[in-house]
Write a structure and sequence with these properties.
Blueprint lengths: L14 H202 L14
Length: 230
């Protein structure tokens, strides 16, 4: 082993060299320890960063997992929708073929009916002219009827006014007659009351006279009961 110790005069190593070596070694060890502690601290920091990064990666992995599950479900739904769309497209294709066949049949029918359509158009034009003439005649007849109706309405209004006037006059006469008759009936009622009163008084007097007569001639046969007049 190499060392920087010098030999002492009495044998062994030089004490100062040993102390210097020990101090130097201690200083180097201290420096190395500080460097190692510094490296350890850096490694701890790096480890903490790695842990945080690992946590972030785990969180991102969980997010990615959820996103993957969501995308998987969406993919399944898309597959189902695609299958349904394909089925609808197939059904629409069959319907489209039927519509095309129907269109071809209609075109053939239209081509066959074109001569009849031309004849119908001509008849329609003539019919339109006849309808226009009939409309004009109907309008003239309507105007004449309206004019006659207005004239009849005016005549009816005049007749109603005349009837109303005659009714007012007749009602006035009837009211006057009824009032006069009511007065006469009132007077006749009063006279009847007086007559009834007189007849009552005469009946009382007759009964008194008859009773006095009976009392004065008791042997006289009672007068026969008068017969009821039919």
């Amino acid at each position: 082993m190499d060392h920087p110790f010098r030999n002492a005069a009495l044998g062994g190593f030089n004490r100062q060299d040993v102390l210097d070596y020990l101090e130097k070694t201690a200083a180097e060890n201290t420096q190395k320890q500080q460097e190692l502690e510094k490296q350890l601290e850096q490694q701890n920091q790096e480890l903490e960063q790695l842990r945080r990064r690992s946590g972030e990666l785990e969180e991102r992995e969980a997010i990615f997992g959820r996103d993957r599950d969501s995308l998987t479900r969406e993919l399944e739904q898309a597959k189902v929708a695609l299958q349904e769309s394909q089925e609808r497209e197939k059904a629409q294709g069959a319907e489209l073929n039927q519509l095309r066949q129907e269109r071809d049949r209609l075109r053939a029918r239209v081509a066959a009916l074109e001569p009849d359509a031309a004849a119908y158009a001509a008849v329609k034009d003539r019919t339109a002219g006849m309808e226009l003439q009939a409309h004009c005649r109907a309008h003239a007849v309507q105007e004449q009827a309206d004019q006659q109706a207005r004239q009849v309405r005016r005549q009816m209004e005049q007749w109603l006014r005349q009837v109303q006037q005659e009714y007012e006059q007749l009602r006035s006469q009837v009211e006057s007659t009824v009032s006069h008759a009511a007065d006469e009936l009132g007077k006749a009622g009063k006279c009847l009351d007086q007559i009834n009163q007189l007849l009552g008084e005469q009946e009382v007097n007759l009964e008194t006279v008859a009773q006095e007569y009976l009392d004065s001639d008791p042997d006289k046969v009672p007068a026969p009961v008068p017969l009821k007049e039919e």
